[in-house]
Amino acid sequence: MSQTRLLIASVTVVPLLLAGCEVGPKQTTQTGYRGTGIDQVVNPKLVKAQVPIPANVYATPDDSGPRASETYKNVQVLGGASTERFNHLMAQMNNWVAPQTGKDPNEVGCNYCHNPNNMASDEKYTKVVARRMIQMTQNINANYTQHVQGTGVTCWTCHRGNAVPQYKWATAAPAKSMGFAEVNTGQNHPSPSAAYASLPSDPFSAYLKDDGVNNIRVASSMPLPSSNHVVSVKEAEKTYGLMMHLSSGLGVNCTYCHNTASFRAWNMSSPQRAVAWYGLRMVAKTNAEYMTPLASVFPAVHPGGGDSPWRKGPMGDTYKINCATCHQGVNKPMNGVSMRADNPLLWPAGGLVATTAALVAPKADPNATAASCNADFDKALLGKTVEFDTGAATIRSTSAPLLDSLVQVAGRCSNFKMAVEGHTDAVGDAASNLKLSQARADAVDKYLAERGVAATQLSAQGFGSSRPLDSSGTPAGNQKNRRIEVTVAAK
Ligand code: HEC
Ligand code: HEC
Ligand code: HEC
Ligand code: HEC
Questions:
Q1: Which ligand 2 atom lies nearest to the CA of residue 286?
Q2: More confident residue, 125 or 395
Q3: For the chain, which domains are there?
Q4: From ligand 4's centre to the CA of 253, what distance in Å?
């Protein structure tokens, strides 16, 4: 009570000083370990409302019937899909990228990409772009699960009903110097890219364009300058510009990812910082592989005349993606809603090509015991399924998050020897079951080793159907028997 009165009193006396403060309810979410100050304080009233996700146009058809490649003439990416599913995706794309707005019928709906008299023709650039965008979306969903998890993305994630997404970037025109400064490296030009801070106004070209970002290391590991670590202030300012974008793009503060005791130290950072690290690589590579090469396809001037540049930035490059393109001010795009179930064509099966080396090789925990490690592996695996393609040892991309959690346990337990075991059910030929179980155990072993678990600590063995958990022979029993286990041996 007395506090409230105090506040009101001060408002009347010094209203200007209080203008930057927000009175009102606050919500606190802890993102890091307890006691590290890694948490978020938000005013729920200021959380950005998200545009409602459009409903599925109609129930997604199954994958039976003639293939799209048999029905149509010029289907280069989705030819393997059933015609019905293909048509469904077209209708969805229509809604996500080019919805009917009642304006010029040549510009919206199917006609945004197609000549209605010849659907197979590639005469409209928008169709050529869309074909590449389908591949880009599939690639993000299949190969960047360390970032997008099983949630993934569709065209809607970026486009939200607009032909050109609201949040994007292109190389900025060189800023004119003001005052005495000859060269200002883009500083003192308030720009939304760097959240209007006095930092370089184009933090993106340096980090989000090329084929892979170098690890950003501007903070020194030493208290005093040393010859091992020479980074200019200019470099650091660029990094800070980028970090302002990370924060504003996700609608979070620095402490969502960092512990302010050390911005550098990974072991003090939140798990979200690791997701962000993969995000930086995903964005740079996607721009390099998909967006930049579209420069020859996007017209620089409006076909109907008018102001140029049109679909390109001031320096003539295509618009590219950054964190805000998908996130649009929230920590999980669309608050984590996945559109996967309705749009299976955008999640190609079996494409686990992820080879990004482990971010931080997990550290051995000196207090771990064989028993605690076995319990941790059980906890990570029990009731979950490592999914493989039917009859093959190709791990499905949907299982990447599960396997990544195993990497963490394996890292803590790397003072012990670990055996990855593959088991099958008793259906089918025993010899091929044995072979398959070995191949699957090997695949998991390889996955762990690629992400920094010492290969010398690991072994893999297939047991076929020789060690069933359930001998009932029922489908549920068989399901239980098809499994991956990890056993830790005492030292
Ligand atoms: C955002 C752009 C876009 C929109 C909107 C769009 N399409 Fe397409 N359409 C494509 C692309 C790209 C392909 C080629 C896909 C491939 O190569 O795998 C295609 C191919 C087709 C084909 C195959 C033509 C052939 O013979 O090769 C048909 C049929 C088709 N679309 C129908 C539609 C219909 C109907 C709509 C409206 C409900 C629509 N499309 C909306 C981009 C679009
Ligand atoms: C990761 C974000 C992202 C995703 C996912 C995405 N797009 Fe795009 N798309 C962009 C950006 C950015 C541009 C603008 C490029 C430019 O104008 O230079 C664009 C442009 C386009 C254009 C050109 C529009 C015009 O009027 O010039 C079409 C068509 C398109 N996208 C279709 C699609 C389709 C279809 C999908 C889903 C299969 C998709 N996009 C998924 C980011 C995305
Ligand atoms: C969404 C997570 C996230 C947010 C929010 C974030 N950062 Fe970062 N930060 C990272 C990641 C990831 C790296 C490492 C990038 C790399 O190596 O490619 C990094 C690196 C840094 C570095 C360089 C560390 C070194 O080793 O030299 C500094 C300094 C930094 N951030 C400061 C900030 C500041 C200041 C803010 C708030 C304005 C901020 N960060 C917000 C994820 C984040
Ligand atoms: C292609 C779209 C896309 C782009 C671009 C993108 N993200 Fe994400 N990001 C996602 C999706 C989808 C998720 C949600 C995964 C889930 O449901 O757990 C996510 C999750 C995250 C998370 C974890 C959130 C949490 O609370 O667990 C962080 C942190 C993050 N992104 C940071 C970034 C940063 C930083 C960038 C830019 C360098 C970026 N993202 C660019 C799609 C994207």
A1: 1
A2: 125
A3: 2-46 (no CATH), 48-348 (1.10.468.10), 370-488 (3.30.1330.60)
A4: 15
